[in-house]
Structures are given as C-alpha cells and as structure tokens.
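Sharing a chain and its predicted structure for anyone who wants a worked example. Both blocks are below, sequence first, tokens second.
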Amino acid sequence: MKNTTRRVARILIGLAVSFCLCICCIAADLLRRNPVSTRIDIWSWNVAAKCLDAATPAFEQKYPHIDAKVVQSGTRLQSRLMLSLISGVGAPDVTQLQCAEAPYYVASGRLMDLTSVAEPYEKQFSPAFWANCVHEGRVYAIPWDMGPCAIFYKRDIFKKYSADIDEIETWEDYIALGERIYELSGGRTKLFPVSVGGMGSYFEMLIQQARGGIFDKQGRIDIDSPATRKVLRVLRRMMQSSARADVGVFSHEFFASLPKENIATYPIAVWFGSSIKDYAKQTSGNWGVFRLPAIEPGGLRVSNWGGSVLAIPDQGKNKEESWKFIEFALCTRETQLVNYRDHDLFPALMTTFDDPFFDEPDPFFGGQKVRRFFASGIEDITVLNRTKDWNEAMRYVSQALSLWATSHWDDEKFIRDIERELHSKLKRDIAPESNQGEGL
C-alpha cells in the first residue's frame, strides 16, 4: 500500500513539474511574440510636442516593445525638470530643452552621457548647435531644430519705393534704405521693429555675426572686445534711426503689423515664417526673404536665433529605450523631414538638406525657394560659448542695453558696467586683454 502511494505521489509530482514546464514554455513563447512593453515618457511643448507625438506610431512600429508617451507641458516645463533633477525623482525619460538653456542643464551633471552613442552623428550637425550639447568634451544632448536668421520683407512695399534687396550689403545700407522709405511714405512706413526692452535678441543675433560673445572658450567674461563695440555701433544706429518702429517683438502690435504697411521688414529666424502664415494669411505671395546685412562689407550674413535639443535625465530607468527614441526622432532623416513638412520645424540634421523638398518653391513667399535659402550657409554660423550662466548673463545684458539707450551711456560705460556686473553676479573671471575679441 505504501509503495502504491509513493508511486502515485511520484506520478503526480512528475505531472505537476511537466505542467509547470509547459506553462513556462508557453509563457516564454508568448513573451517572444508579444514582449512586455516598456513605457517612456517624453516632456515637450507646443508644436514640438505635436511633432514628437506624430512620430510615435512609426517609432512603436519599429520598436513594438516600447510605448512612447509624449507629455505636452507648458512654459514651466524646464523649471519642473530642474526640481526633478535636483531631487532625484520625477524626471521624464526624455526631455526637450531650449538650445540656449541646454548648457545650464548639461552642466548640472544630471543628464545621461550620450558620447558613445552620439559620436557617429556629430558631423551631421552644425558645430554651432552641437556645441550647446557638449560639456567638458562629453555629449549630453542632441540638437533638434534651429533658427537661422534672415530678413522677411513685404514685396509690395519694396516695389512701391523702388527698393532693391541686392543693394543691401551692410546694416548701414539697410538702415539708410529704411530712412528713405520713411521719407517717401510720409512717415507711414518704418523698416524694422525694435523696442528699448527688446534689444537683447538683436544683440545675440549681431554678436554672432561679429564673431564675438559674452564668454570665451574657458568660460571667462569676454564682453570687452572689438566685436561688442561693432554690435553697439549697429544697435545705436538702429535705435536713433527714423526707420525704427518702437514695437516689441511678439507684442500684439508686432503681430498686428504683419498684414499692414506700417512695418516693411522683420529681422528674425526661419520659424517666423509659420507665424506670418498664421497671422497674415491674406498676404500670401507678398513675402520674400533676403540675407541678414553684414556688420561690415564682406562680413558674415548669417546668424541663429532659437532652437531646441532632446536629452535623457540620468535618473531614468529606461535609458536604452530613451536613446532609441531620440535617435529615431532626431538622427533619422525621414522623421526630421516629416517634422519640417508638417510642422515647419527647421531641422538641425544637415543630411536632410539634399532632399528635393528644400527646392520646392513656396507660393506664400512669391515662389521663392525659402527652404533652400535657409539651408544655405548653416555651417558658417559661429559658435557662441554658452556657459550654464548664459541666460542669466543675457538678462543682465538686456537690462544694461535698456539703460545704455535711455540714459545715453557711451559704449565704453556700457562695457565697463556690464563686465563688472557679470563678474560680480556670476563669479567668473574676466578674460585677459590679449584674449578679448576672440569670441570663438
């Protein structure tokens, strides 16, 4: 009886083991066919979030085990991100950052080092944009979109006053033309908008053309330079000219001027084209674009304003999946072209530039090939040595420029005061005189 009981027990145990093994094999097979999905959260905003969201179906088709969720956040995204980075919890798997603010986060030491996986793509991006993603020789972000600058102009006004864009080489030529249009229009038409409080953006655009900056390669304050003096001369000429419309960029009056004759041109970045199409649909065909004027004859006629990057917070648990998403979204030609076609985000990935899409005439801009226009000269945009203090430094520069204009400071007082302010507030060394003006 005992032997029978033992045999039955052994049989039951064997059946149980076989059943468990069978279940495990079935489960393993199911996992191979339908792997467990890993969710990654991506923080972004506005049009950029729509771009990333539109890219997720194709991404998930390529990587079916990754569930990419784009979380569209408002203007406080970057503040919330820094709190998450400091506390060590709550950060997304992937985050968007503004190009100008990227160095601040990169220097925090709380982003994933992407050097090993990003290195093969370095030459596919402009050095001016790649530099914002690098800290102490290591890569911590990937460029996304950028903002090459030019002059958007209204064709009918230029035709009315016999203005020839080919005769504009320097900012002095440009301003002088504006003064002529102002006189011929009886004061009704100004050439460009710039307010006292809005000179900071012009300064950033011009300092790149002058091959200068606020900091040198070592992060020292380098505002006392020939480049800064050239920029101040152009700004003073603009502020004192009858061609200037005292209108702040992005103000209500600024957007209201787009379909009117009171402002003829707008020195700004490529992304402004979509705003014109939104705010002045009825003016289709009346717009054109020409190169930024140079500060001096033969000088640079390119610059950049704006742009963004993607990065991976180091606290994330899904770094491999996060990198796959960034690689698909930013380093893949087809994805970047879709972003540009559908959402008008100009790609930082230069391998997109040979696509026929760039050579299509744009009816809104009178048939001009504006995409090819903006894609030309990207490699000539100079590197700005943006430290983690860049945005704070620009805030001081903008405030000082307002005082410079309203209090009638001379240029040397502006330079002395802003240099002293930056040295005091940022606790950074001042570049030696031999280095001043190096900028690059």
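Comments welcome. The chain has a mean pLDDT of 91.
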